[in-house]
């Protein structure tokens, strides 16, 4: 069984690490010559719209999946002529566009911040009148890790903001006074079987995820699963889907979905019965899903810019380093550590020990 | 950090799967064009005495290790001129020769079956007079999985037996009426730090390991660790060493050591804090050792000849399939399943479910 993956970064790399023991082989299409997943399979070094190489990938693979959601729609449609593609074109169309995504939440009765479509400065002025300030303006597509966003606090922030974000389609979102950010990693099989990992508490800095802690018996678990299930069923989704929520006094408000394995699910490599990576592969290849329950207490600390010295990381009890084999660069996700501990106190000590190596 | 591995089979493959998240890269020297580890690193397709390729490996690697112990002594000596090699030449010299190995056990006061060196049929006749029948005759080197062995039960079995095993140096071992077979996976760091996994109960069929079950509070754990520590310290050993014992009424008798990661330690991939593969890599690269304690209850079922259908394996709760990506062939180790369960009853059910797919 050969899996084609669009993108050859750390998510592709971790998918291959999970799938190799299942006897799967991997091919990655990625324009970067130094794509870090290439160590674990064939590397087609080509642009995402290179039809010759896409066709080569499709013809060599039994199924194709994605490492990121901002794949051109044409790429997905082209591939789907030759090979099963999961998640499918419609799931990607929705998930890569904040307007489609939030509209779907609304249609499915899932609470979400107030939002409006912004195709011009005039739209923006009108949206600000309706939603009020503060608000967050985001490009509809291609945003990640806080990029493609602008917080509008005062009326003068609104002036020229549309041009400032590149005069591309945007949405304006009402500011949500959230008390926390959580994500739910869900997986749905080809036959509609659906499983959920425990909710994860996430801490961001400068828009980049820094820390994820898997919860135990989170009071909003059922609500999160209910919302995610509506989306999964609506899209007839196959694979892992990550659902990010704001925690507010009244419960959860949907922020966004990612139609792929997700940074906030990396703890599952050591911390769950079956990791998000293996479960994604099981789902798209038609295998039964694996266990999503926690093993002990788990957390994940991201390494941004550089990975601390391996000798220091491996000296920390319960610490499992994950070095992505990428060149170090400020602001770049280059690795993470999973901590899996017998109890919460020990987990907290492990997190603190890893964080002490970062600052 | 680049690791050179002599041999590119499943042990090399699982070493690479464990080391890739540590940011390590791998190169394998193996004469087989279809070496299954090649998916995870560079493959130097060459004989083990090909000095040009050995030198290439040594020059590209920061450290070199072995997947099997029957490496020619000249290969080890040649490599050691260029690069640190662990385990070292002396450890391999002892471990690959049953006569040296058992002599070391005797010198270190470690109980072992009676044994005698057999360099001729005359030696064999004399050894049989001393040790008695039944006894087991084994080639001193190159035996594995029951190959290179002959059980001598009756006097007529002894006639011509030396020629039958190829007229190569052998030992004769007294038959041990053992009640069980256990192995201890030990790891020793460059600085002499030593850790042990829990004793594993092993079941063989036709000389090939079929089932390993990790024990809990085994009454002979301390004795096994004591014996293993004598060997590790004597050899100033670096890396994982597997120690196989017979369980007899009076305790343990040493059967053999393997200076490498070992089939009876595969359960540690999911079943221990840090797997034997990661700990071997930590040891030889000078990193601190990882936790060797069990997570839940664990066992390993070997797949000989073929791997059951992945759809059936993944349908079994707690089952983690490991497909080596090798061509199926009768008698060949082509995969295993690790079972990691919350309690012994569930573990037994999992083992039975996996075994039901084999017969």
From TrEMBL, chains A, B:
Chain ranges of the ATP-grasp domain: 102-285
Catalyzed reactions: 5-amino-1-(5-phospho-beta-D-ribosyl)imidazole + hydrogencarbonate + ATP = 5-carboxyamino-1-(5-phospho-D-ribosyl)imidazole + ADP + phosphate + 2 H(+)
Keywords for this protein: ATP-binding, Ligase, Nucleotide-binding, Purine biosynthesis
Pathway: Purine metabolism; IMP biosynthesis via de novo pathway; 5-amino-1-(5-phospho-D-ribosyl)imidazole-4-carboxylate from 5-amino-1-(5-phospho-D-ribosyl)imidazole (N5-CAIR route): step 1/2
EC number(s) from the headed UniProt entry: 6.3.4.18
SUPFAM superfamilies found in the cross-reference section: Glutathione synthetase ATP-binding domain-like (SSF56059), PreATP-grasp domain (SSF52440), Rudiment single hybrid motif (SSF51246)
Cross-referenced Pfam families: ATP-grasp, PurK_C, RS_preATP-grasp-like
EC supergroup of this enzyme: ligase
Transmembrane segments: none
Residues binding ATP: 98, 138, 143-149, 173-176, 181, 204, 255-256
Family: Belongs to the PurK/PurT family.
Function: Catalyzes the ATP-dependent conversion of 5-aminoimidazole ribonucleotide (AIR) and HCO(3)(-) to N5-carboxyaminoimidazole ribonucleotide (N5-CAIR). Catalyzes the ATP-dependent conversion of 5-aminoimidazole ribonucleotide (AIR) and HCO(3)- to N5-carboxyaminoimidazole ribonucleotide (N5-CAIR).
Subunit structure: Homodimer.
Name under which the protein is recorded: N5-carboxyaminoimidazole ribonucleotide synthase
């Amino acid at each position: 069984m050969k899996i084609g993956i669009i993108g050859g970064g750390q998510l592709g790399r971790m998918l291959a690490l999970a799938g190799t023991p299942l006897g799967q082989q991997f091919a990655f299409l990625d324009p970067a010559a130094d794509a870090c997943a290439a160590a674990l399979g064939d590397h087609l070094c080509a642009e995402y719209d290179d039809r010759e190489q896409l066709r080569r990938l499709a013809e060599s693979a039994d199924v194709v999946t994605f490492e990121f959601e901002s794949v051109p729609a044409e790429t997905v449609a082209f591939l789907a002529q030759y090979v099963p593609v999961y998640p499918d074109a419609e799931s990607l169309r929705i998930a890569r566009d904040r307007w489609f995504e939030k509209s779907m939440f609304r249609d499915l009765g899932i609470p979400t911040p107030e939002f409006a479509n912004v195709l011009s400065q005039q739209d923006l002025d009108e949206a600000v009148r309706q939603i009020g300030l503060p608000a967050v303006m985001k490009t509809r597509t291609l945003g990640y890790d806080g990029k493609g966003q602008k917080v509008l606090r005062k009326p003068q922030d609104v002036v020229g903001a549309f041009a400032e974000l590149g005069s591309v389609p945007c949405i304006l979102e009402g500011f949500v006074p959230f008390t926390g950010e959580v994500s739910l990693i869900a997986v749905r099989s080809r036959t509609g079987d659906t499983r959920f990992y425990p909710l994860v508490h996430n801490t961001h800095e400068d828009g980049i995820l820094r820390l994820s802690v898997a919860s135990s018996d989170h009071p909003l678990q059922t609500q999160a699963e209910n919302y995610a299930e509506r989306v999964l069923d609506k899209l007839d989704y196959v694979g892992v889907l990550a659902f990010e929520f704001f925690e507010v006094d009244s419960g959860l408000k949907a922020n966004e979905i990612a139609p792929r394995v997700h940074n906030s699910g990396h703890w599952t490599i050591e911390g769950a019965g079956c990791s998000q990576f293996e479960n994604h592969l099981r789902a798209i290849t038609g295998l039964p899903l694996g266990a999503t329950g926690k093993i002990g207490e788990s957390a994940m600390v991201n390494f941004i810019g550089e990975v601390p010295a391996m000798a220091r990381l491996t000296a920390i009890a319960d610490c499992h380093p994950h070095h992505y084999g990428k060149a170090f660069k400020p602001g770049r996700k280059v690795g993470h550590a999973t901590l899996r501990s017998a109890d919460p106190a020990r987990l907290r000590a492990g997190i603190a020990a890893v964080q002490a190596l970062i600052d």
